[in-house]
Amino acid sequence: MATDLEPIRGQLIEKVLSVRRCAAVVKGGRRFSFTALVVVGDGEGKVGWGYGKANEVPPAVAKAIKDGIRRMKTVTVIDGTIPHQVWGEFGAAKVVLIPAGPGTGVIAGAAVRAVCEAAGIKNILTKSYGNTNPINLVKATMNALEKLRSRAEVERLRGTSLT
Asked: What pTM was computed for the model?
């Protein structure tokens, strides 16, 4: 199954966050299906998340990776951290991302950590509030990362110098 996505797939960071089983009760008993939540990134400022559903785990993960590659977004990363503090929200999940100095590492829970590491962020402090559902936390983190702006970008948008 060769697609146009295959050449870049070898260089991507793929992190499976959760695999869940769903049961549908049918005449002969229970029929199980599986869902997978995956975060995909290149480690250099591009990150996306994907959700896949199938009757077995490996196809669910493969579908999630394909979905994640499709949803990849570019994130502002400067010297291994983010340019400024930012809040992200999705549903009841709220995430605050705070830039950190060199040597701090990624201080985050599993879902937020996966997104940050896949994006190539090396030093960051995070705190999540509210909902702890991994899907909502990933979406809230992506919402926060999409709000990031570099100094040059803000200067260009405002049409003025910030120095």
From this structure: 0.88
CA within 13 Å, CB half, 114 = 21
| C-alpha–C-alpha distance, residues 116 and 149, integer Å | 16
Pairwise CA distance, residues 125 & 94, whole Å: 14
Distance, in Å, from the CA atom of 27 to the CA atom of 113, rounded to the nearest integer, reads 42
CA distance linking residue 131 with residue 62, whole number of Å: 27
In the three-class reduction of DSSP (H, G, I as helix; E, B as strand; rest coil), residue 69 is classed as: helix
The yes-or-no verdict on residue 105 having pLDDT over 60 is yes
Q: Are 15 and 39 in contact (CB under 8 A)?
A: yes
Q: Alpha-carbon distance 29 to 52, whole Å?
A: 24
Half-sphere exposure in the Cβ direction for 137 (13 Å, CA): 24
